[in-house]
User: What shape does this take?
Amino acid sequence: MGETDSLNEKENGAPPHLSELQANTLYPSASDLPPEPPRAVLSNYDRFFVIDFMKGGHDQYIYRHNNGLCVIGLAPSHIAVDNDASVIAVDFNVGKRSRTEMKASGKRKSDACVLEPTSALCKVVCNNAEYIIRCCVRGALLEVNERLVKDPTLLNTKAASEGYIAIMMPRPADWNKASASFLTAAEYLKRKPPRQ
Amino acid sequence: MESTMYGAIQALPSEPVSDLLSIGVCPFCILRFFGIRDVVYSYPFLPSTLVECTTINLSKEPCNKKEQESFGHSNEQALDGRTCNNVSVNFDMSNPCIACLGIFQLEPGIDRQLDRICHERRERMAVTSKEKIIESVKKEGYQFDTFTVEISIPGIVMVRERAVWQHLQEKHGSQSRLQGKHLSEHVVSSKEALKGALIKSLEESLQAVHDSGSTFKIALRYKHPETVCELGFPGCSLKRKRGVMNEVNGDFTEPVESLVAIQRCLASISAKDFASIYPYPPPKCAVACNLDVSCYRTATLIGGRYLKFSRNISQSPWMIEEERKGDGSVQEIIADVVFPHFKADSYKFHASGREDIDVRMLGGGRPFMMEIVNARVLVSPDDIQKIEDSVNSLKEGWVKVRNLQLVGADARSSMLEGETEKQKQYTAVIWLSRCISNDEINDFMALKDLQIQQKTPVRVLHRRSPLVRPRMIHWLKLDRIEGTEHYYLLHLCSQAGTYIKEFVHGDLGRTYPNVGSLLKCEAEILQLDVTDIAMDLFNE
Ligand SMILES: [Zn+2]
Assistant: This one.
């Protein structure tokens, strides 16, 4: 079969159709590569934090993509994860409607629910306590991270990436209003230096 | 051919012919009403031949003289005439033909050769349609070796045609040539007759061949101030505002819908109902049709594949708040060279998918097409080769083209199909948070037709629908980059529409599985190139 043949061919060595010159430019020399790579989460987002949001120890991050969308999650110093115990459960069934039912659709997401900064996104359950995670900014709720329901320990291991809580779409005016009180990453690190 | 035509005209029944001439129907329309087809209409002596034959025929049929006289009386002053053995045929050419409103009297043959009949009309018509056509073609400097003619006739001419037909049927319906005949089947349409009258002589004057499939169109738009919209034919009561009123000369162009509506209505309306709306035979009208000639060429399509060697050139012009992003675009770089060759009005650029601005397009390139609107210049395959060479010899050299060629409209659909079905190959420089063993690399490369679930990436989620799309990664290949611990070259082949950057870094786990999850580490992407687009299009 012709297709299988070309598939095998492609597996051995450089892809077909590439001139010698092109193939060379695909392969960077070690000296051109940085010691540390640019991180997608760091380079695509501006990172902001809030400390003690409505309650002591309720520290959250707001990562703002340059397209205006905001990823909301737990800061490393959040009381739920700033210890050795594991998160037991994440429950999006808060407020009048479960946050997992608030689906947005279409290019304009005109059916998305608009939540207030203090609106609850979910409840994080630990051994002997529960914590409400909030929006921090007014905006349309585009999605919540349902993987947390099955795998709540993502909050302990990867809170800043795969353990994000939700994605919000604030209007520029609402963003400006809310972000005035946010800390930058540098300010946050000064206030909450990483634990040893 | 002339003798056949002569025979055909001679065989016409003289009574109805002489009647039609006397009420002001032109010789061309008369032949149409008798269903005579083909090249007859281009014969320059047609009008005088018709009048002569009719005169001779009438003189041979003295028994009909009485009837014939009665036709002539009413129009005495305006009439010219011919006499043979004291029999005369009257013809009124002081006004435009009551059927075609002068459409055929604009034609060259008549005006040149038949001074007797058409003298006055010729004086009034500044330019004949043929001269107008040639002028229009020359003015725009079109190059062509074939052409086709598109004709539009005002609705009022259709109404008048019907009125003449109704008159003919009522007065002469017993004639064997007319008995039991239907207008739509029997009468040669003005479009067909016009083509018969024009095309041969146009072919000679334009030194080109008529071909209905030609891309070069000569549009003849006959217009008349009398519109059918207000006449009140059932189903044709279109409001005037739906047409286009030209403020400068008061021309009224009927919308196409009203022409279709009037045609449908005329086909079904009874003789009685018709008579209550429009008189028959139709009244004389001092104003002749007006002719607009315009030329255009249907889209010239050229296809090829482009390569892009820059990480700062987008596919199409990319402006954010009137500020240009990057160093130009593939579209502009190619079009700046290609477009001027065609002396055209505008162009559209289509490609089969697109790569991000920071992604190079290598390998065999990406299929693209340019749709060139109303090209004046006809380019040969040789010219196309030269155009390709000049794109490829641009000093900057960031964009190259391959297999540039003239293509047919079917290429457009193959390009669209390919957009969803094709497989694409990529090469990425990636970073992994740990050093991977050879066994792990082999396991990774053993993955075939891996299905992943991809949520709309955060970077485009603000303007695209939130969806989860299943996508196929057909194969993967991982090479170590010598001299580094964490850097690798990832080659992969995926289904169209896969977001590769997100497949590598995982996009907050929203693309799953991803390179990091498969190799149980973190993964980042530093640069990406498209190395092949598997499509059987513009490959040679
Ligand atoms: Zn006529």
